[in-house]
Amino acid sequence: MRIANHRWKNVLLALLVTFTACSSPDQPTSAPVQDPSTGEVYTPRRVVVSDSLIRGRLLDRNDSVLVDTRLQYLLKLPRRALDTLALGELLGWDSTTVRRRIQEALPYKDAYGVAVQLRLTKKEAERIRRDSSATVPQLTLTERYQRTYTTPAGAPVLGYRSAEAQAFLRQARRYRRGRFYRLRNGGVEAYYNGLLTGHHGYLHPLLDKKGQPHGTWAKDTVFQQGQDLHLTIDAKLQAYAEKLLGNRRGYLVALDPRTGEILAYVSAPVYPAATITAPDQAAARAELLEHEDLPLLNRPAMLANPPGSVFKLVNAAIALQMNAITPGSAFRCDQTLVSCVHHHKPATSLTKGLKYSCNPYFYQVMQSLIDCVPDSLAQDTVGARHANLAQWRRYARSFGLDSVLGVDMPREAPGFLPTPAYYDKARRTRGWTYRSIYSLSIGQGEINLTGLQMANMAAIIANRGWYYPPHLVRGIGENGPLHRFTRKRHTLIDSAHFAALVPGMVAVMQRGGTADASSLADVGITVAGKTGTVENDEGDDHAAFVGFAPADNPKIAVAVYLENAGFGATAAAPCAVMVMEKHLRGYIAPKRKRWEKRIQHRAKQGY
């Protein structure tokens, strides 16, 4: 009899588990079921544990609250003509502020007869409650809890809740005609939505006619409150970096190479973090959507570009690993091979080749790699080139290139590295030669990297060959980051070959190097860096820079990319070293204050 009852209960549980999804709290999940052996009728129920869910906060690495759920006061204005002077007196605003706030809340310029809502402070809301009926009638004040941003910085990192961004999503579909998906970036709010929201607890009792429980028909679930997320971002450093890029087009990514924690993440042009969800920022959202520079595009994660000369670091490391060169290899600056914009002394070693960023030098470095014909393929030079390019790509992919790094942010692009088959198809022959692919040697042509990949590349060199995947959350509640961010990854390059790159990167920042004007030697910081100027057929060249500091004990790695900004040495490098100095010292030396002010002014003007 016991065996029969046990089997019957197993069958009952299997049947009832299918009824959970659509059931309402404290309601039967299906019709009562009768026990065929005893005639007893059991009613399965699903009971919600009575606890209220509170969405977790976002805090920076120093535990400053960046995003929280707080009470907001919204003032709904009537559709008819409004006495703006009286409204201004009521709220304590001048007439200019009233008109500006109303204009910002309109979905399009000069909209008429559209009801809008304005965000108020608690003090302003109290004035409305006290005096609005007599001064300005037909005003409606409502209160609701909504995500509140305590800082304007970090918009692409913080992101937004989809439920609070419906007005933006509707605008995006209309303005971008279905292509708005490129502009959607829910950031950390979307990526960790489940952990931030938490979940209710549910009990699953089997009840008899008297309401008495007789076991359970499904496993009970535990109530889980929304978790706080402790970000890797330094809010002050983030705000400072955004001032350096401002309305330019480009990105800056700074991370701690020892942990993979992202310290600053800037996608420019920048915009206030609350713009996407604020009920009174419809006009600002429309401007962002229509802007030709696409400020809503998450550039560091989604935009892959040719990296330019900074990629010479990867090519040099691979060439060393494949024994195509040695640290003492010398090559002549032969401009019949490729032009060299730097006037410099002979590059008699890898260190000097990096210091001067000599294009012919690295043309020949890559040529030594691709055109190397081993004895086993002495009669098949085409096969040798294919094999060497495939091996080059295999080593380059171990840097996390041509694949997503797995950052905790929606929609990361993988970038691109060409394969032998790609060139077979593009050149319409297997017999292509090095001369037709030499642009790879200087980071041009078909190579595409994201900003995250470029910053991670600098971190790999800083660590002499290993890295932790870049990430934005260092702690979930009382726990650490997601497990995958704690697993160290190694490249296929020996650490000795990365060590051979560092003297050249240090020399870049010293007298005679391509970025000697950006040295921090005056404050005792040795920077290792590499400049890049990316050729652009459609306008001015792009400026790039990667580096880390201090060179002997790296604590920060930075990648900067500025579109149409010209030389990496004059445009990108200054931004990178200032972020390094700000992070390592907390302030900028007086010597560079004038320089800093000029950069911030240009950033504000967008050039």
From TrEMBL:
The keyword Protein biosynthesis does not apply. Pfam families: PBP_dimer, Transpeptidase. Its EC number is 3.5.2.6. It catalyses: a beta-lactam + H2O = a substituted beta-amino acid. It is an enzyme of class 3 (hydrolase). Residues 250-580 form the Penicillin-binding protein transpeptidase domain. Keywords: Antibiotic resistance, Carboxypeptidase, Hydrolase, Membrane, Protease, Signal. The keyword Membrane applies. Residues 1-23 form the signal peptide. This is beta-lactamase.
